[in-house]
From TrEMBL:
Ranges for region Disordered: 1-33
Single GO BP term: rRNA processing
Name used for this protein in its record: Peptidyl-prolyl cis-trans isomerase
E.C. number(s) listed in UniProt: 5.2.1.8
Top EC class, one word: isomerase
InterPro entries: PIN4 (IPR043323), PPIase_dom_sf (IPR046357), PPIase_PpiC (IPR000297)
UniProt entry keywords in alphabetical sequence: Isomerase, Rotamase
UniProt biased composition (Basic and acidic residues): 13-24
Pfam families, sorted: Rotamase_3 (PF13616)
Family designation: Belongs to the PpiC/parvulin rotamase family. PIN4 subfamily.
Length: 129
């Protein structure tokens, strides 16, 4: 696993996940304090240049799941879906970023990026409970 200090979060389009959201002030769809599991998708790229190409597609309005099928080196057939994941069940750097993200849809994703020992991830969250 990568050390926690390797996490580099960069906000995607849409409203950024803020400290207020993480403290439970976020409304419907925001980061919720105490959420124990998230329905998460990601795009994993070993090379930084490939991750940048995927980000460009997202910025141009391509759906997250379509970009995942084209660029991700993990779970590509499922549109990047990792399904429901609980706290403590993911790489710590990935988890720290993912649990702070607002929920969004593949058609209008709010995403963040992080580097782990597996490579470069672009992450979006579809649900939380």
């Amino acid at each position: 696993m990568a050390p926690k200090n390797n996490a580099k979060a960069a906000k995607g389009k849409g409203k950024d996940a803020s400290a207020d959201d993480a403290k439970g002030k976020g409304g419907k769809g925001g980061a919720v304090k105490g959420a124990q599991s998230i329905n998460v998708r990601h795009i994993l790229c070993e090379k930084h240049s490939k991750k940048e190409e995927a980000l460009e597609k997202l910025r141009n309005g391509t759906k997250f799941d379509e970009v995942a099928r084209e660029f991700s080196e993990d779970k590509a057939r499922q549109g990047g879906s990792l399904g429901w994941k609980t706290k403590g069940g993911l790489d710590p750097a990935f988890e720290n970023v993912a649990f702070e993200l607002e929920t969004s849809t593949t058609g209008n994703p709010k995403y963040a990026e992080v580097k782990t020992g597996f490579g470069y991830h672009i992450i979006m969250v579809e649900g939380r409970k």
